[in-house]
Structure to design on (338 residues):
């Protein structure tokens, strides 16, 4: 009998965690979803067992890891809204930093020493206009980015002191949805640009806004590197395999090396759906850098990873298919279009 290697996926019932669980299962792993369901969805945990638990519960984590003979962990259980982190930093440091420390304690008590960590391009802050290399990390400008950077430093210390190996994946703007239509972005409230634009078309968002049009960018709006969630998932599987094959890990960008402005995203939504997004322009949000674009060269070399699904039309098309299923057109809008 062939036994699958079990991995624990914290936050596995969320947007990125569920896509990575699916990719891991398709690669032959058994993903054990561990989620408190505060923002995740039980119906997204469909590629392995769902265990409802809190990331701060080290004892439960130890028991779960032992019971399922978990060999590695993919860690997604974190808050990620930049604006919220500015007004409520305690929430972010408690969950993202203290929660990760509790997870690490549970892992070490269970003898599990391999972690793929969901980090972020926010560790670079205002790193400049050129594609950002990994060496530029640490210039954080908001509590969310600082919380992730703190965890990366903790993991560096754990590697040196305990031979605890980890891969930190610094991804930029995750977007899109699985082509199967079974999972996608579903948040309440929704805070991300592409899903908010699509939901505005459907009548589910009445206050869609562009935050800032006075940045030092070609059209005045912020520029970001957008990567399809299925590309992210493939990179997580590659990181798992690196660790399980004896690699010590490291920190790697996940992006495309190409930036798009907010205005370009709105234009791409129009091109794909044939409908203009109703919007207003507001002042910049605190903690938002003007440009964040990844240099993906190191992840291509170390992980053998290259984004293959992240063309802007592919991203918008897959997201739109998901949203039409997950958020049907509001009835009054349907009648007005009839």
């Amino acid at each position: 009998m062939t036994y699958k290697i079990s991995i624990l996926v914290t936050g596995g019932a969320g947007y990125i965690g569920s896509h990575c669980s699916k990719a891991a299962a398709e690669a032959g792993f058994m993903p054990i979803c561990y989620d408190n369901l505060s923002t995740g969805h039980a119906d997204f945990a469909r590629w392995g067992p769902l265990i409802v638990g809190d990331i701060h519960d080290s004892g439960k984590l130890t028991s779960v890891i032992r019971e399922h003979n978990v060999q590695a962990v993919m860690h997604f259980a974190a808050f990620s809204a930049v604006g919220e982190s500015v007004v409520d930093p305690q929430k972010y440091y408690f969950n993202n930093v203290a929660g990760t420390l509790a997870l690490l304690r549970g892992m070490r008590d269970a003898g599990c020493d391999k972690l793929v960590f969901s980090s972020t391009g926010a560790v670079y802050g205002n790193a400049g206009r050129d594609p950002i290399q990994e060496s530029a990390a640490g210039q954080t400008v908001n509590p969310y980015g600082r919380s992730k950077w703190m965890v990366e430093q903790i993991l560096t210390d754990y590697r040196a002191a305990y031979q605890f190996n980890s891969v930190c994946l610094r991804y930029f703007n995750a977007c899109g949805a699985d082509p199967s239509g079974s999972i996608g972005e579903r948040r309440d409230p929704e805070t991300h640009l592409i899903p908010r634009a699509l939901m505005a078309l459907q009548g589910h968002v009445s206050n869609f806004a562009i935050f800032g049009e006075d940045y030092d960018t070609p059209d005045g709006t912020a520029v970001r590197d957008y990567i399809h969630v299925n590309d992210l998932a493939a990179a997580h599987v590659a990181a798992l395999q690196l660790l399980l094959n004896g690699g010590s890990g490291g920190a790697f960008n996940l992006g495309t090396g190409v930036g798009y402005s907010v205005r370009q995203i709105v234009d791409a939504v129009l091109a794909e759906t044939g409908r203009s997004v109703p919007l207003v322009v507001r002042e910049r949000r605190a903690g938002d850098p003007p440009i964040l674009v990844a240099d993906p060269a190191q992840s291509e070399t170390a992980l053998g990873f290259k984004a293959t699904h992240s063309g802007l039309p592919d991203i918008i098309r897959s997201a739109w298919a998901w949203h039409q299923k997950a958020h049907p057109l509001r009835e009054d809008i349907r009648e007005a279009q009839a």
Remarks:
- The chain has a mean pLDDT of 93.
- The chain has two domains: 5-175+226-254, 193-223+257-330.
- The first strand starts at residue 5 and ends at 10.
